[in-house]
Write a structure and sequence with these properties.
Layout (H helix, E strand, L loop, with lengths): L13 H15 L4 H12 L11 E2 L33 H5 L11 H21 L16 H7 L7 H15 L1 H17 L6 H20 L2 E2 L2 H24 L1 H27 L13 H7 L8 H22 L37 H4 L1
Parallel strand pairs: 1-2
Length: 366
């Protein structure tokens, strides 16, 4: 037999008691519209910011908290806009992004590529990443479902993709910040200008962090994932810091190769959506933080559209770092923020309308 126990929870404030009384009165009258206006909004606006649903979460539902709660003690602040406004991408420009690889030419290039392959192996192992190397059947193919089932445990689903993307972006935001801080300190110590490199590197780090914040709106990492991110960041930050002190050129080439892998990863994720392998993402809307940051137009705010924007960002970082790796590290100006004598000639810029996947050679921009 079941036995009912009386409710013994105490109300800690008169406001909470008044709200509960108002809710009971509304329910007794058979109407909920007033309650939704006067009760639900204040409750949702207060801690602990519970979320009704997450696409992926290794944290228990009752412990999931809003990632970006509203400020508690800043009633005069309406909104804090981003420090760097993102350039506008067209659909044609984003669809033109493709997988590319810069061939190694020097021993430094080979060292950078070897380190990326080592990092890629560790990241694939940590996130359980595996992808079909064969051709992907078009969406709607009757054999597509069987193909996905045949891969069994190694099939990439929505959860595994989000795990990989979270881990990838938590690492990708490190190099730009490290390089910018080192160059900043060099500029102060040598009493010389940096020729515009710091701004671009900081903007890159900021952009990668926005990728991470966007995915955190869709996924709630558990303690194990957070521990992995903490360890990876600690090792990678310090390793990249020491490496940048010794050879900035190799570090930029390393990041260029790393961004090549990022473009490949997002291209495969988009292909999986098109192939019908990720049905939960077919009509999934992008988070509001992404809509505002990328200025996503109406009718183009799906998960696939979001991945197109992020892939375009990674392709831009690929171009920037391969280009910076081709320049004289201490003397050459940053070609992505410079003004040119003849603007009609193709040259680097902040957008992707004139992008070169393998970077600009020094003789092309100097």
């Amino acid at each position: 037999m079941y036995s009912a126990k009386p409710l013994t929870t105490s109300l800690s404030s008169p406001r909470a008691a008044a709200r509960l009384s108002q809710t009971l009165n509304v329910l007794a009258n058979g109407s909920t519209s007033t309650c939704l206006k006067s009760c639900s909004t204040p409750l949702l606006a207060r801690p602990p910011y519970f979320l009704p649903h997450r696409l992926f979460a290794s944290t228990a539902q009752q412990r999931i908290r809003e990632v970006f709660p509203p400020p508690q003690d800043a009633p005069s602040i309406k909104v804090t806009p981003p420090a760097w406004h993102h350039p506008v991408y067209t659909e044609e420009q984003m669809n033109a992004i493709h997988v590319a690889h810069r061939e190694t030419k020097t021993w430094a290039d080979r060292v950078a590529l070897m380190m990326v392959k080592l990092l890629r192996f560790g990241m694939d192992t940590a996130t359980g990443y595996s992808h079909d190397k064969g051709s992907i059947k078009p969406k709607g193919d009757p054999n597509q479902k069987a193909l996905a089932q045949n891969k069994g445990w190694f099939a990439m689903n929505e959860r595994k993709w989000l795990v990989r993307m979270l881990f990838l972006e938590s690492v990708a935001g490190v190099p730009g910040m490290v390089a910018a801080s080192v160059r900043h300190l060099h500029s102060l110590r040598r009493l010389k200008r940096d020729n515009g490199w710091i701004e671009t590197l900081l903007e890159e780090a900021y952009n990668e962090r926005m990728h991470l914040l966007t995915f955190m709106k869709m996924a709630e990492p558990g303690w194990f994932m957070k521990f992995m991110i903490l360890g990876a960041q600690g090792v990678f930050y310090n390793g990249f810091f020491l490496s940048y002190l010794m050879s900035p050129r190799i570090c930029h080439r390393f990041v260029g190769f790393l961004e090549e892998e990022a473009v490949l990863t997002y291209t495969r994720a988009i292909a999986d959506i098109d192939a019908g392998k990720l049905p939960k993402w077919d009509k999934l809307e992008a988070p509001e933080i992404a809509v505002r940051y990328w200025n996503m137009p109406e009718g183009h705010r799906t998960m696939r559209d979001l991945l197109l924007y992020i892939r375009a960002d990674e392709a831009k970082h690929r171009e920037v770092n391969h280009t910076l790796g081709n320049l004289e590290q201490k003397t050459d100006p940053n070609p992505f923020v410079s003004e040119y004598e003849d603007p009609s000639k193709p040259h680097p810029n902040k957008s992707i309308d004139n992008i070169k996947p393998t970077g600009w050679e020094r003789k092309e921009v100097m």
